[in-house]
């Protein structure tokens, strides 16, 4: 059976002091039954690694360079993230795509760079409201997946993690219904199965992200193909994040 995963995405939030308070509460929660992680701003990786070493919560980053080293001012490479004990890294978050102009080929190159460094990429895919309303959800998500399948291979994608994050649900308080999430998750698994085979696709963790809260996590995670969540705002509130982790753990037990 697939083990659920809950990953917090802190985005560009935090300070040494507020992180410490959050980590003190979350790290000591004695969680089991699922996998847990937080993806934090680069400068805090050392602090977070120190605080979470030996706990059930892994840590990671929110993006990386597609290159391993070189003259790329301001960038951070996969091997550097490994140096700081990262297990996960996001690739292609919608904010990277929309604000920083990352397109499918670059996202795919980052995905490949992450795996090359021994990290598990969490590939983010999802449609805008206009794309959903025009009936293009599957076309958009399908081509985002295909870009990575073409660059990395279907097996590599099946060994990673996919997060379905409808852009219209991110930070808006508007959550996809469990039915809407399940439909796209099922589509994603079928697309990967077509390329990698049923056995590999059935092991792929597909997370839902977009206004997941303590109050709606359980019904989302109850869906057959929803294997946990990628959590933004609620991951900054220790009690909420722990409650969401417990909902995933309940599915995993
Ligand atoms: P919110 O949970 O704040 O909607 O953010 C979702 C997200 O973008 C996680 O990567």
Brief sketch in words of this structure:
The chain is an alpha/beta fold and 253 residues long.
Task: Using brief descriptors, characterize the structure shown.
TIM Barrel, 8 strands, 12 helices, alpha/beta, binds 1,3-dihydroxyacetonephosphate, 253 residues
Question: How would you sum up this structure, described in words?
Answer:
The structure is a single chain. With 253 residues, this protein is of the alpha/beta class. It has one domain: Aldolase class I (TIM Barrel), CATH 3.20.20. It is built from twelve helices and eight strands. The protein has an eight-stranded parallel β-barrel with strand order 1-2-3-4-5-6-7-8, surrounded by five helices. Strand 7, helix 11 and strand 8 form a beta-alpha-beta unit. The longest helix is centred in the C-terminal third of the chain and has 19 residues. 1,3-dihydroxyacetonephosphate (13P) binds next to strand 8.
- The tally of helices reads 12
- What structural class results from the helix and strand content? alpha/beta
Major sheet, described briefly?
Answer: 8 strands, parallel, barrel
How do the strands line up in the largest sheet?
A: 1-2-3-4-5-6-7-8
Bound heterogens, unique? 1,3-dihydroxyacetonephosphate
Number of E-state strands: 8
Distance between the termini: 10 Å
Average pLDDT figure: 96
Helical coverage, percent range: 40-55%
């Amino acid at each position: 059976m697939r083990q659920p995963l809950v990953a917090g995405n802190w985005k560009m939030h935090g300070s040494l002091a507020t992180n410490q308070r959050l980590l003190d509460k979350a790290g000591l929660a004695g969680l089991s039954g699922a996998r847990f992680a937080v993806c934090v701003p680069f400068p805090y990786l050392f602090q977070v690694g120190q605080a979470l070493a030996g706990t059930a919560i892994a840590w990671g980053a929110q993006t990386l360079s597609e290159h391993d080293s070189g003259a790329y001012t301001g960038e951070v490479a996969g091997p550097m993230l490994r140096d700081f004990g990262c297990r996960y890294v996001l690739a292609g978050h919608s904010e990277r795509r929309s604000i920083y102009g990352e397109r499918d080929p670059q996202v795919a190159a980052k995905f490949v760079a992450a795996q090359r460094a021994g990290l598990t990429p969490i590939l983010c895919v999802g449609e805008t409201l206009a794309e959903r309303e025009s009936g293009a959800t599957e076309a958009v998500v399908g081509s985002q997946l295909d870009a990575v399948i073409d660059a990395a291979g279907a097996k590599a994608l099946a060994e990673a993690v996919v997060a379905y994050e409808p852009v219209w649900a991110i930070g808006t308080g508007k959550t996809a219904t469990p039915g809407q999430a399940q439909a796209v998750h099922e589509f994603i698994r079928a697309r990967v199965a077509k390329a990698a085979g049923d056995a590999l696709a059935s092991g792929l963790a597909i997370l839902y992200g977009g206004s997941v809260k303590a109050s709606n996590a359980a019904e989302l995670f109850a869906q057959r193909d929803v294997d946990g969540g990628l959590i933004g705002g609620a991951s900054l509130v220790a009690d909420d994040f722990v409650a969401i982790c417990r909902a995933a753990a309940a599915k995993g037990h």
